[in-house]
Amino acid sequence: MTRILIVDDQDDIRAGIRAMLRLDPGLVVAGDLSDGLQVVPFLRDHPVDLVLMDIRMPGIDGVEATRRIREEHPPEKTRVIVLTTFDQDDIVLAALRAGANGFLSKTVSPAELVAGIAEVVGGGGALSAAATAALIGHMTHSPPPVIDRELLRRFDALTPRERDVVVLVASGLGNDEIAARLSVSPFTVKTHAVRAMTKVGARDRAQLVSFTFRAGLYP
């Protein structure tokens, strides 16, 4: 069973998320909170596997609440999905830097939410399409302060060339641009990227970008 904490300042949103989570009998709502300040004290007495975190709340916002979670709970123990209507570049980056494992829009379908939870709880990551675009377009050169060590270990299986390709993919470059940069063919780039995704467990390039950033490997 996956124990989940819902954090959102709107009663109807929390009720709606509860209803969506009932689609999967393996998901159990351990509690719901309306204030970011309540999150860490709650987790001290009620450990959960996953926190579904809103961004804009009274007290402290979801980014700061995630930072505080990470001070006491590593990413591989208590996972966090930021669930919000806001997909702005700065929010996406701030949430991931704070230690979030995923970023989904509140407009996702119940099936997409359940699938995203399963992916994150299984050690993967989840990013909405808009969040992926923001992440690729506005990455910075500084590594995130919270590195997911479990993900970082997966990258040890990559060859040096696969790692080069992964870093360039995370920079937002396409196959043709990477091929020109590395003096190889686009087909070779695609092959390296597919092999890298298989080795680290990423289902697509967007998730590969998320994994790379959270592992602290972004250039």
Automatic annotation (TrEMBL):
Annotated protein name in UniProt: Response regulator transcription factor
Residues in HTH luxR-type domain copies: 151-216
Entry superkingdom: Bacteria
One Pfam entry name: Response_reg
Keywords for the protein's UniProt record, in alphabetical order: DNA-binding, Phosphoprotein, Transcription, Transcription regulation
PROSITE patterns given in the database record: HTH_LUXR_1 (PS00622), HTH_LUXR_2 (PS50043), RESPONSE_REGULATORY (PS50110)
Keyword Hydrolase: no
Lineage of the organism: Bacteria, Bacillati, Actinomycetota, Actinomycetes, Kitasatosporales
Response regulatory domain mapped to chain residues: 3-121
Modified residues (4-aspartylphosphate): 54
SMART domains per the UniProt record, alphabetical: HTH_LUXR, REC
